[in-house]
Design a protein that fits this description.
Elements (H helix, E strand, L loop, with lengths): L1 E7 L9 E11 L9 E7 L5 E6 L6 E12 L8 E2 L2 E2 L1 E3 L6 E4 L4 E4 L3 E2 L4 E6 L7 E6 L4 E3 L4 E9 L5 E8 L5 E3 L10 E9 L8 E5 L10 E3 L3 E2 L4 E5 L6 E10 L2 E6 L4 E5 L9 E10 L4 E11 L14 E8 L5 E5 L6 E4 L5 E7 L8 E9 L10 E6 L5 E6 L9 E9 L4 E9 L12 E4 L2 E6 L7 E5 L6 E5 L9 E4 L4 E5 L20 E5 L4 E5 L14 E7 L6 E8 L6 H4 L4 E5 L4 E5 L11 E4 L5 E4 L6 E7 L21 E4 L2 E5 H4 L4 E4 L4 E5 L5 E3 L3 E4 L3 E3 L1 H5 L6 E4 L6 E3 L1
């Protein structure tokens, strides 16, 4: 029997409605994978990227491997899609079929992705006097792996989905097919085409809708969500009739024409800053065809206060352990979930913003990175990124970061993006570089209010100031602070045009060996309308550990008026004083009572937590900030779960970056990625969970968590190793 380890590369370019929850592994002695020759045929929902198999093969035997991914289909809210009360699943495109010999110990399969072809139609008379429809497609193209265009499949249906014509695996008509005469060019048709490679991979279907009548289905015009005053209304417009000349939108306030937009195609952003709450607005689309006929479709919405998005919450003030997340290393992030429930994160040593989802399903980590969305306009990868992400009132998204690379600290950049709620497409509108690279170091020193950005400007000579930035033109206003602090002032905004300031220190924070004291215990409120500071209460922070000077502050939404009732303060300091870092208990700031109360809910793992995600449902996600590729995730629960549903960590308390196992110890495989090394001493037992089966490792097991190059004679054989466990998916092991 041979032990073969099959690993796959995580899927890329996933649509936002798919979550990778399983991997199908097939191993066969036959390249066609006929049933009688299958050695392995299973779907694993725990071993997503790597699985070991025992195969009855000889060293010189050839076998073939193919994999494909199993996906959970999500609805527009990010929750599992249900049909007839059951969750919906689908399988992705198979990988290329790869041959291997029995003497190989590991197999790594690349995901094979064929670009979805573009489909068009034309007419021809080359075969008869009567015009016939011709399907044409774009050229065969692969995103990854290798392969040649071998077949194409063509399907034609009517508008109800009835199949009128099908040509499968056509080897002769790869990008052009003349259809039979009975397929009438005057019919309303939906035409599908897909490409197949000689490595057994298949693209998604490209589609073309041939509309020859003026019937326009109503579902092709859609508005996203509710109509919020101040938030640009977004409309998706899919005009599938090729015979139209114009699409016009008339907006009526009650029954009075308010504004007109001409020549709309595909998508529309409609400003609502001057809309009046509780009034009815009618959005009437008029589509004019080539024959002069007009077809109308109207959407009616009641304008609502933006604050009504935030409903009353019953905060548990407890943490729920939510698994691990791969960040590639140290990150410092304050991110607010966007209006369409998307979560944006930034990984270390990259240029790309990533899309994430939060799912309340126990089979996977709650916080899931779905894939890269778009690249920031930088020339080099950003090292140890400090990132602030939040929407403006109009729906545009602010992404602020420090353009740090390996050679320099860099400047603070504030980018403004137009955000398509339907498909999470982002278009850069403005880029502003702050005048002093040291103006903002931590994301907790920046916030948005209305359509402005507010941040703390640090200047040792001129003093610190609160700055209001117009992100569209770079115009700023500066306000003198009511107290002195060199570094770490934290700010937060409520929904009533107020900004709260607190914390900070006057000490040299570059000396990580020291404990730093908070500069003052007062909290100040800045009115963005009156442009003045007011002290809130008296020494409200006096109950907070004096050595916690820097916070991430999350709003607590509440009463029927949907105003902020208060805030939750989280410790974000990053010095080496573990006695301070270890206290991740929260502090609750009650605005009605003007009190700050300590909540003893620390999760006792001695880690620094410099990343926070403020969720629309009131939850606050917190994940650690270390140099390790994987970070630990907790969720501070509002009313999304009951107390009996919460999960404590259950993992071991760490001591530095090394794990020494002296007795039976259980660790999740994702948690092992945190360690630089793992040593199992004689008598110790390491139980690795999180896979299809628990792995039990003893002192003769080499556990690999980082890229390693080992001298067999010096570093491997003398230590008596007889087994190797690759604990981290990204780790590699090379023998010399």
């Amino acid at each position: 029997m041979k032990r073969i380890n099959i690993s796959v590369i995580p899927p890329v370019l996933l649509p936002s409605n798919l979550l990778h929850i399983g991997t199908e592994y097939k191993v066969s002695k036959d390249v066609l994978f006929i049933e009688d020759e299958l050695l392995v045929n299973e779907v694993s929902e725990t071993n997503l990227f790597e699985k070991k198999f025992s195969l009855d093969i000889g060293n010189e035997d050839t076998f073939y491997v193919v994999t494909r991914y199993k996906y959970l289909v999500l609805d527009e809210t990010g929750n599992p899609k249900l049909e007839n009360g059951e969750m919906v699943y689908k399988f992705g495109t198979p990988s290329m079929i790869t041959p291997f010999k029995g003497n190989q110990e590991g197999v790594r399969i690349s995901d094979t992705i064929i670009k979805t072809p573009k489909v068009r139609i034309e007419t021809t008379t080359e075969l008869s006097n009567k015009e016939q429809l011709v399907i044409t497609t774009s050229e065969f193209e692969m995103f990854s792996s290798i392969g040649q265009h071998k077949y194409s499949t063509y399907v034609i249906t009517d508008l109800e989905g009835k199949v009128l014509f099908k040509r499968e695996l056509d080897e002769d008509n790869l990008t052009r097919l003349i259809l039979p005469k009975e397929i009438n060019i005057l019919d309303n048709l939906i035409i599908y085409a897909s490409h197949h490679s000689d490595t057994n991979a298949t693209s998604n279907y490209g589609t073309y809708v041939n509309m020859t009548t003026n019937k326009l289905p109503r579902y092709l015009v859609e508005m996203y969500g509710e109509l919020w005053v101040g938030v640009d209304a977004q409309f998706s417009i899919k005009l599938i009739n090729a015979l139209y000349t114009n699409c016009k939108l008339d907006v009526y306030e009650e029954n009075v024409l308010k504004s007109t937009y001409n020549n709309i195609r595909d998508f529309a952003f409609i400003p609502t800053s001057d809309y009046i709450e509780n009034k009815v607005y009618n959005f009437k689309f008029t589509i004019t065809s080539t024959n002069g006929l007009e077809y109308e479709y109207t959407i009616s919405k009641i304008a609502r206060k933006y604050k009504e998005r935030f409903k009353e919450k019953d905060y548990l003030d407890k943490y729920d352990y939510s698994g691990m997340i791969i960040t590639n290393g140290l990150t410092k992030t304050l991110s607010y979930q966007l209006i369409n429930n998307a979560i944006l994160l930034f990984k270390n040593n990259t240029k790309f913003l990533s899309l994430a989802k939060y799912l309340n399903i126990r089979e996977n980590n709650n916080l899931q990175v779905m894939g890269d969305l778009f690249a920031l306009p930088v020339t080099s990868n950003i090292i140890d990124p400090s990132t602030f992400i939040k929407e403006l009132l109009n729906g545009d998204v602010i992404i602020s970061y420090i353009s740090r690379d390996n050679s320099s600290f860099g400047n603070v950049i504030v980018n403004t993006y137009e955000h398509n709620f339907f498909n999470n497409a982002f278009r850069l509108k403005e880029t502003i570089t702050l005048e002093n690279k040291d103006e903002l170091v931590m994301p907790g020193s920046m916030i948005t209010s209305g359509n402005y950005v507010y941040y703390i400007k640090y200047n040792s000579l001129l003093g610190n100031k609160l700055v209001r930035l117009d992100p569209y033109n770079g115009i700023t206003e500066e306000y003198e602070l009511p107290y002195s602090s060199k570094y770490g002032i934290s700010i937060v905004a409520d929904l009533d045009n107020n900004i709260y300031l607190m914390g900070g220190t006057n000490e040299d924070i570059t000396n990580f060996a020291l404990k730093h004291k908070r500069a003052n215990d007062n909290v100040y409120r800045f009115s963005t309308i009156g442009k003045a500071f007011t002290k809130v209460g008296n020494n409200l922070l006096s109950t907070v550990n004096k050595e916690i000077y820097q916070f991430h502050i999350a709003p607590r939404y509440g009463d029927k008026k949907s105003t902020v009732l208060g805030f939750t303060l989280f410790n974000t300091i990053e010095n080496n004083n573990h006695d301070v870092i270890a206290d991740q208990s929260a502090y609750v700031f009650d605005l009605s009572k003007l009190t700050i109360t300590y909540k003893d809910n620390d999760h006792l793992d001695n880690l620094s937590y410099g990343n926070t995600i403020v969720m629309n449902n009131g939850d606050i996600i917190r994940y650690s900030s270390t140099d390790d590729p994987a970070q630990k995730v907790y969720t501070y629960i509002s009313d999304s779960k009951k107390e009996e549903e919460l999960d404590d960590d259950g993992n071991i308390i760490r001591d530095g970056n090394h794990l020494v196992v002296k007795s039976p110890t259980t660790v999740n495989k994702f948690d092992l990625c945190r360690y630089d090394s793992v040593v199992i001493e004689p008598g110790g037992t390491l139980i690795i969970t999180g896979g299809e089966e628990d792995e039990i490792c003893y002192s003769d097991t080499l556990v690999v968590t980082r890229d390693m190059v080992l001298d067999v004679a010096v570093e491997y054989n003398p230590k008596g190793y007889s087994n190797i466990v690759m604990a981290c998916p990204e780790a590699t092991l090379v023998f010399k």
